[in-house]
Amino acid sequence: MTASPKERLVVIGNGMAGCRAVQEVLKRDPTRYEIAIFGAEPRVNYDRIMLSPVLAGEKSFADIVINDEAWYRDNGITLHAGRKVVGIDREAKLVRAEGGLEVAYDRLLLAMGSDPIRLPLPGAELTGVVTFRDLDDVEAMIAAVKPGARAVVIGGGLLGIEAAYGLARRGMGATVVHLMDVLMERQLDASAGFLLTQAMAERGVDTVLGANSEEILGQDGRVAGLKLKDGRVLPCDLLVMAVGIRPATTLAKAAGLEVGRGVMVDDAMRTSDPAIYAVGECVEHRGQVYGLVAPIWEMCKTLGQTLTGVASTYEGSVLSTRLKVSGVDVFSAGKFAGGEGCEDIIFRDAGRGVYKRIVLEGGKVAGAVLFGDAADGGWYFDLMRSGEPVGDIRETLVFGQAVTEGLRGLDPSAAVAAMADEAEICGCNGVCKGTITQAIADQGLTTLESVRAVTKASASCGSCTPLVEKILIASLGDAFQVQTGPKPVCSCTEKGHDEVRRRIVAEGLKTMPAVMQALEWRTPDGCASCRPALNYYLLCAWPGEYRDDKQSRFINERVHANIQKDGTYSVVPRMWGGMTTPNELRAIADVADKFKIPTVKVTGGQRIDLLGVKKDDLPAVWADLNAAGMVSGHAYAKGLRTVKTCVGSEWCRFGTQDSTGLGVQLEKIMWGSWSPAKVKLGVSGCPRNCAEATCKDIGVVCVDSGYEIHIGGAAGLHIQGTELLTKVATEEEAIWAICAVMQLYRENGWYLERIYKWMARVGLESIRTEIENPNRRRQLYDLFAYSQRFSRIDPWAERVAGRHADEFNPLSRRMEFAPA
Predict the structure, then answer these.
(1) Residue-number span of the structural domain to which 743 is assigned
(2) What integer pLDDT is reported at residue 429 of this predicted model?
(3) CB 783 within 8 A of CB 743
(4) pLDDT tens-digit readout, 382-417
């Protein structure tokens, strides 16, 4: 008996809506359709919501991929990436793409999303004027980031704020220009908008409110500024238009489908042509268009049922907005701005930057806006949707669910247990409670990480994490495994970092295969996450015995230089304690001229960075710097980077000790050492702290009576001041204490765990107890000194001598055939 041929389902749109709709179909009937997907972008499906962290440098593209190439392949889906559809022949049931490709369909799904609005301002065509909609836009913005550059973002909605925040994180000066007097006025009231304006200022973003744009100014074909209607001019090197979106309807309109503001669909997501369906931002349903993910997931669920023969109805969506705006939790729903007949309940906590406004109407929750603490947003939203009277809990309502129900004698977990299976838990990924509980039951999930991996709940912005944990507790009780520290080393093992480190030493494991065998690794060779960690742990445990595995290091550590976005490298020679000489400076200048290095920059660590070095030139650059007596600054290393100093007592009127001399000694003792993560030191000659020692991993503040040793500072993505570890009287004791704490961190830190995170995990007092014990301090110092016998080797000199020379042979040369 011959099997019936599969129906042909063609999807126009390889974004979140199109692929989610396909997932809903596959979940119900994986063999029904032969599926082809067209995407205008030359890449797989990714999480567009997470473009903001990519712009800010907090995530990479790989981190936000939703469906990788294997997903398409495993589900038999033909992906036409980078092939824009230019026409639909409804009579012949064909779609036509660029390049003349034609594909026939039985069912066609339109999921084209929306187009960014570009204001018709004079100068809008200038180079440097971009929108913020896809990965190409993000890459264009990142390319514009240069020292001293400024960006202007038109639009104070979510996208505009995220664009400005991301560019500020990249080092650009950023200004948001907004037509209204309140940022995000569609989600926030005036009070919350004020707090957001303050939060943006704290993050380096200026705000110009109530401003009307008149003209984009240019110079030599590039954007140079934005002129406002009041005459003000805001200079800029990049201008981002983030003023809204409109449904992408051009293709549907050209095909003769019914189009209003969007592609018109009925409750089954069917267009005016019964063979063509539509979902997502391109759709108009019952007079509404939607730009949030929650309604889109609901549309896709309805479509999945429709396309697999199950009658289903989409009745529209009740909207709430839960966002993490530039690191601040925000929630709004319903009549958040109040109105006639409404009553407000307000809570403010100035110290924490928290604002809550609960709007009541007729004794029921009609709306809410939360800023700074949005944990109870889902609870308020459920109360609003259910229409439940809240008169008896009015006095505690604003303090949230836990307080309200605790005072009523209710078990807080009972509310989670009582939630309907259809209740949405993760808005970013459209995951409902039933999906999570079913996955927990069917697959034996017991940790937050495993739920994230299987369901994607809390895998994006993370704001629903507490609720997911409550579901785990309600489902498993005592069987729920609370993750008390970082997750296991990687998915290759269940073992955590502490156990791995302990057993390497206790069982004398001295090779990577030995570790993987003894600890029962799930994979034959590990992965890109665990191999660098194991390589470091073995190096630390067995100095002089274990041979460093260069293939288990990241590219920067393999080539001893930092790769840049254009594929060139930066080279940073070491300058002991920030000191240099005329001869060293001449050598650097000669190298920059000889190899045509385009950028020479002074770093924040008191060194000089040569940017734009070609990979093939690295050994020759190092040879010339070596000849001048300079060694690698390890600016790429999970190890000691710099020791920043002030001039101290030798030159400064306020200096109490020779901070420069101490810094030079420390760097010459500690250079070349490997550690779990990068380590930066600072030595300040007096409490005025000119070397910024109190925001370094390890810092020294010199005082009249000796030296204060501080640890646990940070000044990057996380900003934190140090804690005082101990105080010593002499320079020698300061060196002993610093080397000892470095060794303690090297032995006990988890790979990629900075000192401030290690300190928070083990406790400052436990570190202090070891360092202030003279015998233990001496033991740690001796261990560090022994390991340095094998570490203080200049990798540049080794490479000049020919070690690992293959790293610098182009692949084409390595693969050449010998002459016949």
Answers:
(1) 640-788
(2) 78
(3) yes
(4) 899 889 999 989 989 999 887 887 766 666 566 677
* Per-residue pLDDT tens over the stretch 655-693: 999 999 999 999 999 999 999 999 999 999 999 999 999
Number of other CB atoms surrounding residue 135 within 10 Å: 17
Which residues partner with 12 through β-bridges?
38, 110
In sequence order, what are the residues at sequence separation of 6 or more whose Cβ sits closer than 8 angstroms to the Cβ of residue 82?
39, 40, 41, 42, 43
Planar angle of CA 179, 184, 187, nearest 5 degrees: 140
Give the C-alpha distances (Å, rounded to integers) separating 222 from 467, 468, 697.
48, 48, 42
Closest-CA residue to 748 (of 518, 505, 508, 545):
505
**Average pLDDT score, the chain:** 89
Give the residue from 531, 532, 536, 556 showing the smallest Cα distance to 546.
536
pLDDT band at 810 (very low <50, low <70, confident <90, very high): very low
pLDDT(327) > 50: yes
Amino acid in the structure at residue 90? R
Instruction: Tell me the pairing of strands 45-46 and 65-67.
Output: antiparallel
Q: 616 and 747 share a domain?
A: no
Non-local (6+) Cβ contacts of 588 within 8 A are 573, 600, 608, 610, 625
Residue 478: Cβ within 10 Å count = 6
Task: Specify the CATH number for the domain of residue 618.
Answer: 3.90.480.10
Give 127's contacts (C-beta < 8 A, 6+ positions apart).
221, 222, 223
CA angle 773, 774, 777 (to 5 degrees): 80
Residue with tokens 């391109």, as numbered in its chain: 282
Q: How far apart are CA 535 and CA 517, in angstroms?
A: 15
Instruction: Assign 454 a pLDDT band (cuts: 50, 70, 90).
Output: confident
Q: What is the CA radius of gyration of the chain?
A: 30
- Helices (H) then strands (E): counts for the chain: 28, 40
Within a domain: 818: no
CATH classification of the domain holding 233: 3.50.50.60
> In whole angstroms, what is the distance from residue 437 CA to residue 534 CA?
35
List, for residues 78-116, the tens digit of each pLDDT value: 999 999 999 999 999 999 999 999 999 999 999 999 999
How far apart CA 760 and CA 767 sit, in angstroms, is 11
